[in-house]
Amino acid sequence: MEIGLVGLGKMGYNLSLNMTEKGHRVVALSRSKEKAVALKKEGLEGTADVEYFMATLSGRKVVWLMVPAGEPVDQMITKLLPYLSKGDIVVDGGNSHYHDSIKRAAELELRKVDYVDAGISGGPEGARRGACMMIGSSLETFSYLKPLLEDICVENGFLRVGENGAGHYVKMVHNGIEYGMMQAIAEGFELMDEGPFKIDYQALAELWNSGSVIRSWLIQLTGRLFSDDPDLKQIKPIIGSSGTGLWTVEEALLRKVPVPVIAQALFARYRSEQENSFSARLVAKLRQEFGGHDIVKP
């Protein structure tokens, strides 16, 4: 199959190599002419010109977007529209909000262009070696893309979860669950770090990943990171958030579904960004006022 891939970040670049390795022809669109030229060394065709990019694709065009969620997706679709024909397929493999995906699908349907929202899990390693994908699309479009998905995903690693929007909806919830799982792992290791025993965390993670109830890829990664940095002294305690955790909590509030673990994990990330929390200083001062408790001055 021929695929036009837009966006050569960590995920897009590795996904393009995965597709090429499986025998698919990949033409990549990059904003950087230098990067487009460098792609040839990897057996890929690259260009920075949208018109040329679309002209090189034949038959039923498949354009796979790996660009940041929000305005960049809309801007790229606008650039592609003049070159898209009836039956062509636009796949959004980023972490777009599912409302945006529903809207984009409806707009493209007016042009008889098929839209696919593909939630992708597994990180850059999965994109390169075999990803897990949650697909929102029509049955016909999913059937057309199935041979490609079978090649680039792990075994049993893709599923049509519903119509347009469903793929990114499920990926949003997936990421919310991920927030909670990582927070629980981190809190458990922090408790042990404050405990009375000197524990080899790398060995413990490897043990837990060998038959325990909590064995998982996240526990495997935990063992790996302790191998590289046993005391975690090479990193500041600041946790980023991509937005999907917030969307999950917003959706839960809208649906009146309690998600306290996910919400708390999200708030923990926000707290990590505050080096000098106003609320923490206020609580400390209140404790001194009503109870005479000591405070720590800067």
Care to describe what's here?
With 298 residues, this protein is α/β, with parallel strands linked by helices. The protein contains 13 helices and 8 strands. It has an 8-stranded mixed beta sheet with strand order 3-2-1-4-5-6-7-8, sandwiched between helices. α8 (166-193) crosses α11. The chain is elongated and about 75 Å long. The mean pLDDT is 93.
Question: What key phrases describe this protein's structure?
Answer:
298 residues, alpha/beta, eight-stranded mixed beta sheet, 8 strands, elongated
State the separation between the terminal residues, measured CA to CA: 62 Å
**Can you count the beta strands?**
8
Helix content: 40-55%
Backbone structural class: alpha/beta
Strand content: 15-25%
Overall outline: elongated
Largest sheet: 8 strands, mixed
* Stretches with pLDDT under 50, minimum 5 residues: none
Any idea what the radius of gyration is?
23 Å
Provide a count of the helices: 13
User: How is the largest sheet built, in terms of strand order?
Assistant: 3-2-1-4-5-6-7-8
